[in-house]
Specification:
Its EC number is 2.1.1.314. It catalyses: 2-[(3S)-amino-3-carboxypropyl]-L-histidyl-[translation elongation factor 2] + 4 S-adenosyl-L-methionine = diphthine methyl ester-[translation elongation factor 2] + 4 S-adenosyl-L-homocysteine + 3 H(+). Keywords: Methyltransferase, S-adenosyl-L-methionine, Transferase. It is built from 12 helices and 12 strands. The protein has 287 residues and is α/β, with parallel strands linked by helices. It has 2 domains: 110 residues, Cobalt-precorrin-4 Transmethylase, domain 1 (3-Layer(aba) Sandwich), CATH 3.40.1010; 170 residues, Tetrapyrrole methylase, C-terminal domain (Methyltransferase, Cobalt-precorrin-4 Transmethylase, Domain 2). It has a 5-stranded parallel β-sheet with strand order 3-2-4-1-5, with helices on both faces. The longest helix is centred in the last third of the chain and has 17 residues. It is globular.
Length: 287
């Protein structure tokens, strides 16, 4: 049996009782290490579970998971995922490959940013399509997520923006030269994400898009979330321009672009506003 076990968003204690019981009985325990991170390292997890962990990077899961699935034919194997196991499509792919090999699977769910985002006061059923904002490079600066934000805003829906993380990535030079040298981990901040969204505005304006047709502007309200589920959780509501210079500290960060606001959502967001005079002016009619 292959168990996909969610670890939640905080620390070692966020695993469910059911999940912990499964981990303790499994002969092999893998820790997925590339779609998200906890506030604690593998060593602390090992101490809490009383189990040695096999750290599974993207390459192992997406290309070399044969050993894990082979073991799961005869033994109980756990695959630990920060958040909820099915919050990333790559884990659905793992389940499909297990099915192809005749390996039974079971999912143990847990808290995910997809639901925990409600901590900022926005109602979950008012969210539209979630988008991923990737780190730009000198030669690759995609804008596709703007269109999804625009579609959500047109329907009055909020947009949760998941921000890029880079774990065990190789530089272009090392890829070309075939060297197994990895870059340090990098985590996109809300400031970087807001800056990219503002730059996209400039591109749209240069393309002749009227200001009235833009999905948002620099003074639009947005919500920055940092370390959701941890004791140091931080939530800030301000303009997109102000967010571009906002320091919410250590990772992980997420960004929300609100749509039409319900009166209760306005009251909740106001609790996190850095400038309540600005907030009351911008959000008084729910837009």
């Amino acid at each position: 049996m292959l168990y996909l076990v969610g670890l939640g968003l905080g620390d070692v204690r966020d695993i469910t009782i059911k999940g912990l019981e499964i981990v303790k009985k499994c002969s092999k325990v893998y820790l997925e290490s590339y779609t998200s991170v906890l506030s604690v390292g593998a060593a602390q997890l090992e101490e809490f579970y009383g189990k040695q962990l096999i750290v599974a990077d993207r390459e192992l899961v997406e290309q070399g998971c044969a050993d894990m699935l082979e073991a799961a034919v005869e033994e109980d194997v756990a695959f630990l995922v920060v958040g909820d196991p099915l919050g990333a499509t790559t884990h659905s792919d793992l389940m499909l490959r297990a099915h192809e090999r005749g390996v039974k699977t079971q999912v143990v769910h847990n808290a995910s940013i997809l639901t925990a985002v409600g901590c900022c006061g926005l109602q979950l059923y008012n969210f539209g399509e979630t988008v991923s904002i990737v780190m730009w490079t000198d030669t690759w600066r995609p804008h596709s997520y703007y269109d999804k934000i625009a579609a959500n805003r047109k329907r009055g829906l909020h947009t949760l923006c998941l921000l890029d993380i880079k774990m065990k990535e190789k530089s272009i030079e090392n890829l070309i030269k075939g060297r197994d040298v990895y870059e340090p981990p990098r985590f996109m901040t809300v400031a970087e994400a807001a800056s990219q969204l503002i730059e996209i505005l400039q591109v749209k304006k240069s393309e002749g898009v009227p200001a009235s047709e833009l999905a948002y502007d620099e003074d639009s309200a947005c919500v920055g979330l940092a370390r959701v589920g941890m004791e140091t959780q931080q939530i800030t509501c301000c303009s997109l321009k102000d967010m571009s210079s906002c320091d919410l500290g250590s990772p992980l960060h997420s960004l929300v672009i609100p749509g039409k606001l319900h009166p209760m959502e306005i009251d909740m967001l106001r609790l996190f506003a850095t400038n309540r005079t600005w907030f009351d002016t911008v959000c008084k009619d729910g837009s």
